[in-house]
Specification:
The chain is elongated, with a radius of gyration of 21 Å. It is an alpha/beta fold. The protein has an 8-stranded mixed beta sheet with strand order 3-2-1-4-5-6-7-8, sandwiched between helices. The chain is built from 11 helices and 8 strands. Helix 6 (132-143) links the parallel strand 7 and strand 8. It binds 1,4-dihydronicotinamide adenine dinucleotide (NAI) and (2S)-3,4-dihydro-2H-pyrrole-2-carboxylic acid.
Length: 259
């Protein structure tokens, strides 16, 4: 059984671990304090390592699941002589190489919070020290919690915006729609469920057809009907440009976080 050790056991590590099959992977965590690590491990049904050193020694693959600014201090304090996976936003392979050795196998991964329900859309890339079999193993780990896209590293920032951060923007869209439902007299829980179901089915419809999104917009918009009135209103309020600006801000922030 492959032993995976997570350094850092916050929201994202918990989302990934929640989704992983505990019969297939031997998972342990090491967080900031042992007490909290033990509580989190108990909740997740996995092992708490007594220390980062113990975790590194007993893992086949080590996942860094701390905030990007914590990574330099961890890599300065511990020599991780195992394939190292980083899920940190903005940290490039060359940032990580500068903090480790020239021989360190490094895999950069960008999962998303939908890992919790085994529906992460994950990006992956590696440095030249990673063997094909290790890369296949790490890819399989993330495939077990959703889809995996191998990317050129130059596209990681864009991927981070479109898949890593976008659940937040999609929730904002859902909340705005359901708030409109409240404005027009519906209870919030009812309108949120209606909007969430419709977002899910619309995405499924797009993925299962060969049609592009604008053709699907046209299919909903009856001549002189209700939908086109809303489409025109969205455009008058710069919906498309506003969304593109948000993605560009995310990509720019990702670049600014790299050294
Ligand atoms: N939240 C998300 O949707 C996503 C987050 N990420 C990346 O995942 C990483 C973790 O993010 P979150 O889980 O959201 O943050 P978080 O704040 O929930 O988790 C980070 C954890 O690291 C722990 N920690 C701090 N110092 C530590 C140390 N020295 N040793 C061990 N643990 C330590 C903290 O106590 C905390 O539990 C970040 O690098 C982020 O860029 C990537 C994709 C999606
Ligand atoms: O906000 C962040 O920096 C992380 C990366 C993608 C999602 N959350």
């Amino acid at each position: 059984m492959i032993a995976i050790g997570f350094i850092g056991a916050g929201k994202m590590a918990s989302a990934i671990i929640n989704g992983l099959d505990k019969d297939k992977f031997n998972i342990q965590i090491s967080g900031r304090t042992l007490d909290t690590t033990q509580k989190t491990a108990h909740t997740l049904g996995i092992k708490a390592a007594a220390s980062h050193t113990e975790l590194i020694e007993s893992s086949d693959i080590v996942v860094l699941a701390v905030k990007p600014h914590i990574i330099p201090s961890i890599l300065a304090a511990y020599q991780i002589n195992k394939p190292l996976v980083s899920i940190a936003a903005g940290m490039t392979l060359s940032d990580l190489e500068a903090l480790t050795t020239s021989k360190q196998p490094l895999i950069r991964v960008m999962p998303n919070i939908n890992a919790t329900i085994q529906k992460s859309t994950t990006g992956i890339t590696r440095n030249t020290n990673v063997s094909d079999s290790t890369f296949a193993t790490v890819t399989a780990i993330f495939e077990s919690i959703g889809s995996v896209h191998e990317l050129a590293e130059k596209d990681f920032g864009t991927f981070t915006a479109l898949a890593g951060s976008s659940p937040a923007y999609i929730y904002m869209f859902i909340d705005a729609m359901s708030r409109a439902g409240v404005l027009h007299g519906m209870p919030k829980d009812v309108s949120t469920k209606i909007v969430a179901e419709t977002v899910l089915a619309s995405a499924e419809m797009l993925l299962s057809s060969d049609l592009n999104p604008w053709t699907l917009v046209d299919n909903v918009s009856s001549p002189g009907g209700t939908t086109v009135a809303g489409v025109v209103s969205l455009e008058q309020n710069n919906f498309v440009a506003t969304v593109i600006d948000a993605i560009t801000a995310t990509v720019d922030k990702n670049k600014a976080m790299s050294n």
